[in-house]
Structure formats: structure tokens, C-alpha cells
Design brief:
Layout lengths: L8 E5 L3 H12 L3 E5 L43 H4 L22 H14 L6 E2 L2 E8 L6 E7 L6 E7 L1 E4 L6 E2 L13 E4 L13 E5 L3 H10 L5 E5 L8 E3 L6 E4 L2 E4 L4 E4 L4 E3 L2 E4 L3 E2 L5 E2 L5 E3 L2 E3 L14 E3 L8 H17 L7 H17 L13 H13 L6 H16 L13 H8 L3
Parallel strand pairs: 1-2, 1-7, 2-3, 4-19, 7-22, 9-17, 10-11, 10-17, 11-13
Antiparallel strand pairs: 4-5, 5-6, 8-18, 12-13, 14-15, 15-16, 20-21
Helix pairs in contact: 1-5, 5-7
Length: 445
């Protein structure tokens, strides 16, 4: 006879897209789930907050933390069909208050996540305004103590609870990375991180240095160009001699990385150019940050590598009782979260058996060696890109379901091509051969 499935008591930390996916799959597999969310509503990074932090660089540990990094004009950089969950397609609603565009604004994504939570009864599992302040192993057991802090009007209320397993889904767009620049302590200009960017007005008539080469850096530079006097974009990914005007703009230039900055306001680039600037905007990404998690050194963050993790999810020495969802970057996020969550739920119930601790460690070590052989820096351990498709297929095979559908892969690549060829207009460009894919997606639901 088959082994009966086991129901576990599971704590999910965070009610963004990853936490909602985890809660749904865990509940579907029969587990008892509690989702902790420190904000006043679900949605995680997709909750737009016009406020910014008191420290523009977000380095002051005593600052009041704003979770979201969304800026006002942000639209998705993947088509809605591609980024949606496999089991709950992100199709336009027949509602005039909703955003029907293929690349919708951030509000539409938040509403979609709220729809998802309602559809599957996830809202009842979520404790809002409840921050997890400590997660640690109960001595001589595989269980976890979770200490949470409930926000109250007069004083905070703390509670300790015991769980069989913890799934960490707290996101990675809150704790900024900032570029280290020689001479910055005496440079008189302003600095801020894109975490605190909302609208371009602050940059009116300013000479701006923007550091970064990510999609958000490109988007923000183009938006700021509409109001700034000059924008000088720099990153470590370009050659030292680089100096060129950005096509389509008369006030934007691409430079090599900054060599140094000085007391007179000057910024010297490695290409030899000198610019006197008003502000440096760091579009330099984020750190993985788990201030609540105590694993006695078993799980660490080293140069933005969270590890050791088997398939970016399970730390072998603590598996399956501790897991992570949503660490990867450069992916179609929601379906990856969904497949990871299916895997975790099935492992916890006993439907799937993990390899031995030794076998998982060997797999991790082989993965790290492959990154090293390909000259991939440690800080890019969780960047996936093309490898996400094999990864999704592997997860699907574990769970007895399909990975990414062929149409999803096609549209993912089509979005990338559009971004490169038409960076200012790709979101509103309809490909002639796209309609049969849209019909196929709409027939799923």
C-alpha cells in the first residue's frame, strides 16, 4: 500500500507572489498553513508605496524600512501571459477599472495577486501587520520556533509558536547594494538608491550620474531624461574606454565605470571624462537579507550567494524543514515560484523523497564548480536566464507535472528581443504572429 500523506504545520514568511504561491500549494497538499505578512495588505513588492525611506541610500539600520521598490510609472517587462501562474493565467478582466494591456502597470499585478488569493482562499491564512522577528530550531528537534510581532496601536504584541517547517518568501528588493566609489565621503553632491525612486521630479534640471545596467536602470534613465539636464550612465559591465551618446537622446551618455569623485563635485570616469554632477543614483540591485533567520551558520549569505541550497530551495542539513521560494533573478517569476512551491509541498507530505544530504551537497558543489568554470561571479549564483527552462522542467518532473509551456518560452524570448530592438516602445508593439499564442493562453482558463 502507498504511504499515507502527512499534513505538516507550516509557517510561510511573506505574502508576496512567492508566499501566496507557497500557501496555495501547501494548502492544496493538505498542510496547515500560516502566512506572516508585516505590511497591511498582501502583494509584497507589488504594493506601490509613494513614501520613501528617510535615508536616500537606505544604509542607516535605524531607518524606517519601506518594503516596496516600485516606482510610479513601472510596467511589467514580461507579457502578462508569461509572468502569470500556470494554474491561474494572468488574463485581462472584463472590468473597465482594470489595466488590459499586455504589459500592465504595477497596480494590475497587485490586483491579479489579490484575485489569486481570493480564488484559492489564501486570505484566511494570512496574518497581516505581523512581522517575523525570529526563526530558529527548537533544540534537539527538527521543529522551528517562530516569534512574531503584531503591530498594535499602543504597543507591539509578541507571540512564540512551533512549526514543523518554515518556507522563507520575504523577497529580495528591500535591502539595497550601493556602489563603492573612491572619494565619495568628501563628494558634496546627493546620493540615492533606486529603492527610493518614485517619480522623476527630483531630477529636474540636474546633472545625474546613474550607476547600473539592469532593466530598471535602463527604464529609470529614460524616464529621468525627460526632466534632467544631463544623464551619465555608468556600470562595471562596459569597457573602460566606453563613451557614447545614447541613441534617441540628446542629454544621455554611456560611460565606463567611475574612477573617483572629488570635493569640487567632479566625477572622473575610467574613460578619462570628467563631469561635475549634482546627484548619483545607484541602480545597483539588492542584497538577500534574512535578519530573522538563525541557523547557527548552516545557511549563509556570502557575496549575495544564499547557500548551500539544493536547487536554490533546500539547505541539505535542514531539509525539508527549511526552504526558500523566489531567490532567483532574471526569470519569469510567478510560475517558477509555483513549481518550487509544488515541490516543497510534495516533499513535506511525503509524496516526494529528497536525495540524501550527501547527494544534495554533491549536486550543490558541482553547480558551484560549473559557475566558476563559466566565470560567473558568486554574486550571480541565483541569476538564471535561459537555465530557468531546464530548471522548470526538472521541477515539473519531480512533481509529475509540466514545466514551462512552449508558448511561454517563446513569449519570454520575444519580450527580450523587443526590449533590445525597441526599448522605448516594445511594450505597446504587437507582433503579427502573436494572436494564436494569446488564444491558446485564454483557452487554459
Amino acid at each position: 500500500m502507498p504511504t499515507p500523506l502527512i499534513s505538516r504545520r507550516v509557517a510561510v514568511i511573506g505574502a508576496g507572489a512567492a508566499g501566496l504561491a507557497a500557501a496555495h500549494e501547501l494548502q492544496r497538499e493538505g498542510h496547515n498553513v500560516v502566512v506572516f505578512e508585516r505590511e497591511i495588505q498582501i502583494g509584497g513588492t507589488w504594493v506601490y508605496d509613494p513614501r520613501v525611506e528617510s535615508d536616500p541610500l537606505s544604509l542607516d539600520p535605524s531607518r524606517s524600512i519601506i518594503h516596496s521598490s516600485l516606482y510610479c510609472s513601472l510596467r511589467t517587462n514580461l507579457q502578462r501571459e508569461v509572468m502569470g501562474f500556470i494554474d491561474y493565467p494572468f488574463i485581462p478582466k472584463d472590468d473597465h477599472t482594470r489595466d488590459p494591456r499586455r504589459y500592465p502597470g504595477h497596480r494590475e499585478v497587485l490586483l491579479y495577486l489579490q484575485d489569486f488569493a481570493r480564488e484559492f482562499g489564501i486570505e484566511d491564512m494570512v496574518r497581516l501587520q505581523t512581522e517575523v522577528v525570529y526563526v530558529g530550531l527548537v533544540e534537539e528537534t527538527n521543529k522551528w520556533k517562530v516569534r512574531s510581532k503584531k503591530k498594535r496601536e499602543n504597543n507591539d504584541e509578541f507571540e512564540d509558536e512551533i512549526y514543523d517547517a518554515v518556507v522563507v518568501c520575504n523577497g529580495h528588493y528591500t535591502e539595497p547594494c550601493v556602489a563603492q566609489i573612491p572619494g565619495i565621503s568628501s563628494w558634496p553632491g546627493k546620493q540615492m538608491h533606486s529603492h527610493n525612486y518614485r517619480i522623476p521630479d527630483l531630477f529636474q534640471d540636474q546633472v545625474v550620474i546613474l550607476i547600473g545596467s539592469s532593466l530598471s536602470a535602463n527604464e529609470i534613465s529614460r524616464e529621468i531624461a525627460g526632466v534632467a539636464k544631463e544623464i551619465h550612465v555608468t556600470s562595471r559591465s562596459v569597457r573602460d574606454e566606453t563613451y557614447e551618446q545614447q541613441s534617441g537622446y540628446d542629454n544621455m551618455w554611456i560611460h565606463s565605470m567611475i574612477e573617483s569623485v572629488h570635493e569640487n563635485g567632479s566625477v572622473i570616469f575610467r574613460n578619462g571624462r570628467v563631469v561635475v554632477a549634482d546627484i548619483i543614483l545607484h541602480c545597483t540591485g539588492y542584497k538577500y537579507h534574512f535578519p530573522f533567520l538563525e541557523t547557527n551558520g548552516i545557511v549563509t549569505v556570502d557575496d549575495n550567494r544564499v547557500g548551500p541550497l539544493f536547487k536554490h530551495v533546500f539547505p541539505p542539513a535542514l531539509a525539508p524543514w527549511l526552504s526558500f521560494v523566489g531567490l532567483q533573478r532574471k526569470i519569469a517569476p510567478f510560475p517558477i515560484f509555483e513549481l518550487q512551491s509544488k515541490w516543497i509541498a510534495d516533499v513535506l507530505s511525503g509524496r516526494i523523497e529528497l536525495p540524501s544530504q550527501e547527494e544534495m551537497m554533491e549536486d550543490i558543489e558541482a553547480f558551484y564548480l560549473s559557475l566558476e568554470a563559466s566565470n560567473v561571479p558568486k554574486r550571480y549564483t541565483h541569476n538564471m536566464g535561459d537555465s530557468q527552462f531546464d530548471y522548470s522542467n526538472w521541477l515539473g518532473a519531480q512533481c509529475g507535472c509540466e514545466g514551462f509551456e512552449e508558448w511561454r518560452i517563446q513569449k519570454y524570448y520575444a519580450s527580450g528581443i523587443g526590449r533590445r530592438l525597441r526599448p522605448d516602445t516594445y511594450r505597446d508593439h504587437e507582433e503579427e504572429d502573436d494572436h494564436h499564442l494569446v488564444l491558446e493562453i485564454h483557452q487554459i482558463k
